Each structure stands twice: as structure tokens, then as C-alpha cells.
Amino acid sequence: MNRARYRITDQPIAPEEVSHQVRRREAGAVTLFLGTVRELTQGKRTLYLEYEAYPAMAVAELERIGREVRERWPDTETAVTHRIGRLEIGDIAVVIAVSSPHRRAAYEANEYMIERIKQIVPIWKKEHWEDGSAWIGDQGNTQAYPEGRPPRG
């Protein structure tokens, strides 16, 4: 598995670079998912987000998801880059690229990847609103932070 395909960065993400990592002659389909910072969440106006991660573990979990995808969709290639730090409205937080000989596998694998990232990758989000801020638990919003912030890795 090519570790360079699974990255955590504090720099803006270039989607075409992530896409390029999975392009190949055998692939008739390349899907690209861009997760961006939206302005409104459940009626609250977001000013900006902050992401934190445990980078070594996050990369290991992204690699794990890549292996899961290969097991379910054997002819796929995947790459993921997730950004940390302060992100403004419209900034790209995550890019997922999947290539496969046919489009169905590429679409399905791409959706699977974002859902698994939210479930298991140690990346945490703090939302800053007009009227305050809060850490939003894990990305799947299934775990609260009793101390008000994510655990330190």
C-alpha cells in the first residue's frame, strides 16, 4: 500500500493531485469527493472550523480503510488527503479519489470511504459559530467530549 496516498496536512489540498494518484490505464472511472466547509449547519451560521488529528494514527486508519476497499472492490485504487488546522467557509477539508475499471465500484467505494473516515479516523472538528463554539465529538457526531475537547494523542 502506498503510504503517500493517505495524508494529513495543514496546507490547502489540490484535488487534482489526489486524483492523479489513482489514475491509471485500466481505470475507466475516477470519482472524486471534496468535503468542504459549509456555512450553515442545523440552522447555525458557521464562521470557520478547526480540525485536529492524531496524524500517525489517522494515516494508519486511512490505510486500513484503503485495504477494506480493496477487499470489497478488488480493482480499485484509492487516495485520501484530510486537512487540519483552521478552515474557512468553502475550504476543502477532505479529498477522496477512487479509480476502478467501472463507475459503480468507484462511486460505491468513494461513499464507503467517507463514511468509514467519519467512523474510525482520529480527526476532530471544532465549529465556531456566531454565538460560540464547540468540539463536535467524533466526525460521525456519535461521541461527546466530556472535557469539552478531543483527547490528546
Q: What do these coordinates show?
A:
InterPro entries: MoaE_sf, Mopterin_biosynth_MoaE. Residues 134-153 are annotated as: Disordered. Pfam families: MoaE (PF02391). This is Molybdenum cofactor biosynthesis protein MoaE. The chain is of the alpha+beta class and 153 residues long. The protein has 3 helices and 9 strands. The strands form 2 sheets. Strands 3, 4, 6, 8 and 9 form a 5-stranded antiparallel β-sheet that branches. A 4-stranded mixed β-sheet has the order 1-5-7-2. The longest helix has 18 residues, at 55-72. It is elongated and about 50 Å long. The two termini are 24 Å apart. The relative contact order is 0.23. The mean pLDDT is 91.
Q: What's this entry about, in short?
A:
It is built from three helices and nine strands; from the N terminus they run βαβββαβββαββ. The protein has 153 residues and is of the alpha+beta class. InterPro entries: MoaE_sf (IPR036563), Mopterin_biosynth_MoaE (IPR003448).
How are the SSEs ordered, and which strands pair?
Layout: E1 6-9, H1 15-20, E2 29-36, E3 40-41, E4 44-53, H2 55-72, E5 77-83, E6 85-88, E7 92-100, H3 103-120, E8 123-129, E9 132-138
Parallel strand pairs: 1-5
Antiparallel strand pairs: 2-7, 3-4, 4-6, 4-8, 5-7, 8-9
